[in-house]
Amino acid sequence: MFSSAVADGNGSNQAAGQAPRRMDIRGTVFDDIRVFSGNANRPLAEEVCRFLGIPMGEATVSTFSDGEILVQIDENVRGKDVFLIQPLSHPVNNHLMEMLIMIDALRRSSAKRITAVIPYFGYARQDRKSAPRVPITAKLVADLITVAGTSRVLTLDLHAGQIQGFFNIPVDHLYAKPVLLEYLNTKEFNNLVVVSPDAGGTERARAFAKKLNASLAIIDKRRESPNKAQLMNIIGDVAGHDVLLLDDMIDTGGTIVQAAQALKERGALKVYGACTHPVLSGPAVDRLKTSAFDELILTDTIPLGDKAERYDRFTVLSVAGLLGQAVARVHTEESISSLFV
Hints:
- By secondary structure, the protein is of the alpha/beta class.
- It has helices spanning about 40-50, 90-110, 135-150, 175-185, 200-210, 255-265, 285-290, 305-310, 320-330, and strands at about 35, 60-65, 70-75, 80-85, 115-120, 150-155, 170-175, 195, 215-225, 230-235, 245-250, 270-280, 295-300, 315.
- It has a seven-stranded mixed β-sheet, with helices on both faces. The chain has a five-stranded parallel β-sheet with strand order 1-4-5-6-7, sandwiched between helices. Strands 2-3 form a two-stranded antiparallel sheet.
- The model is unreliable at about 1-20 (pLDDT under 50).
């Protein structure tokens, strides 16, 4: 199943008690907002603009013949409150450089404030020195974004919460939980158990379990090398239950596919998966096609392209309404803490 859901301005399609408190922006005229996008996820940026009722900012983002990135801002942004929407998804290096160069162009065009809206923050998995002589790329990228001229950052479901502290500028860290919960509350589960694929995701899984009145289970795994993990044990009872396997991202799919199979072998009835960031690199889609999942629920922080056509159990939910609300609140200097649920 492939579906898409975008919340409207007054939040009328939100599940009772689950959605964040929303501003009613109907009739609001945002004269001083400009929203731009690189090439990483223009459809999401266009959805945010439709939510706000403003046109997309005009910019040329292309390449020279040798592959260097060429950027030109094609409209006046002097004194404007500018939001640049750009996930750091594949090809991550190109999209990172696009963002940095666009920020520099906007700064040199005298934008009043530049907010980097990064739905998916790449290079986040190296957030500490986990071995000798390795970099901390999350900090490096944070420094690059700051030095380029960014005033603040708006991001979604960071791989590690401490990355907020790597920036010396304000960071608004949103969560896709309200968007996922809205959809999950429309489904009928059989004694649902929310499962964390590792110990690090336990807090996230516990929060979902509380909202869904579900039990909690944890998979104890041991990672042998990057992109490879060996499942060790399932802590909790899943036999005779529907299960929701919850993670912040799916990269190659190896871990989550192994986890789904282990849950089936332990007697789970139906296995659902949910994640915010569908990185889906390398063999991910092929692995998912032969997996034990009955449905995999994703958001559109990263565009799926033809991957959605290759796997018919994807359900894609839009975060455009959530980001649009955050952009409106940042612009009007309203609190966005009610979106941090």
